[in-house]
UDP-N-acetylmuramoyl-tripeptide--D-alanyl-D-alanine ligase
Amino acid sequence: MIQRTIKQLSEMISVINDYQSFENKTIQGVCIDTRNLVMGSLYVPIIGQNFDGHQFVEEAINQGVAAALWQRNVPNPPVHLPILIVEDTLEALQQLAKSYRHQLNLKVIGITGSNGKTTTKDMVTNLLSLQYKVQKTEGNYNNHIGLPLTILQLEEDTEMSVLEMGMSGRGEIDFLSRLASPDAVIITNIGESHLLDLGSREGIAEAKLEILNGLKANGKIIYFGDEPLLRDKLDHYDGDATLFTFGKTESNTIYPTEITTTDSGSYFKVNNIDEVYHLPVLGTHNIMNALSAMLVANEFHIPFSKINEGFKSLKLTNMRMELLEGANGVKIINDAYNASPTSVKAAIELVSSLPGYEKKVLVLGDMLELGPDEVDFHYEIGKALHPEKIDLVYTFGKLGNEIARGARETLQENQVQTFTNKQTLIEELKKQSKPNTLVLVKASRGMKLEEVVVGLQT
């Protein structure tokens, strides 16, 4: 993590007050929350809609932080304490991270996309770790506050940093990319998330492509080549970066030639390589994420022959295609972290294709932030279900009712049920919970369907 004297900090951000009396004091790390203070760190008070971190500055210093920032327009700064007055504390945090990033001798991989960012981040980190010291975005620290904090956590001897870049509107990826200055970027796909804010998939594609704006000279661009919205834009790219594509079709730089799906993951081969790769992660859609990680790793001198070694120890962030065992031997796929039409279809395709189960049950909740067509998106998910591949569909939430409405057009009435109470849903699921039964739990994060997973395990 960052370790600098106050004097050095003043050369990285613009400080307004006189700090000479404590300029030789050293800070180690940065924190923004007094509930998670780090001794000797720099406390940055953030001003939000319903809170102001400045009210905790004295408490933070009394608890052992080395110094704190203070925003100029906030009255009554505690001048008897080691504080650095800045124009804007959030902007100072971001500038500090940007300065620190350029002081480090490392390579940065930036990852964005509608789905699969975190999974791809985990895969890239595992593969690069075969040869380098790597640090990655932890949790959901992928926005205008989280990304600077992630960068400031990087160790001086870190060789590779894998940074996830999230967004909800235009300009956000542009800002993050310019802050992080990536050496290579991955765009996993273009889905329907954030249609509410961006209006169309075209708008989403344009927002995701902002990740190119901070790309270093002679960088590398790796993107999902089966997506026309990306192909159309990048076919006319005239920058100095090298472009690579991944996807299912033979027009891509890398694509699968054979795929075998099991409940322990996937086995697959790719063009021009004899190796059979084992990805210990459920879902053929995750092979696409793996292909992008393989391209990045190979460009940074990890040979394709070592990729299996990196995949072997792969463990994804929780609630992403986790295969768990519940009470009575039922198998549960916990994919409750997030959902969009694209990711829900991929999860259903996985469940449909897995062999060895007598009964397959879908538990599907609302997909959020889909804009004015949200009802149609949910209805189409249900309508596309195949009666020979899915036995039961349980939906949760107001929009989940639309999935059920569509499902009733292809499945029998007794195969579809809607729920508004999670405990009732859990009790009904437990009646179906037997060995050789597979249950998929999938919804947007706000629906908190991981509570259903926990209920099935007890």
Remarks:
- The domain at 322-456 is CATH 3.90.190.20 (Protein-Tyrosine Phosphatase; Chain A).
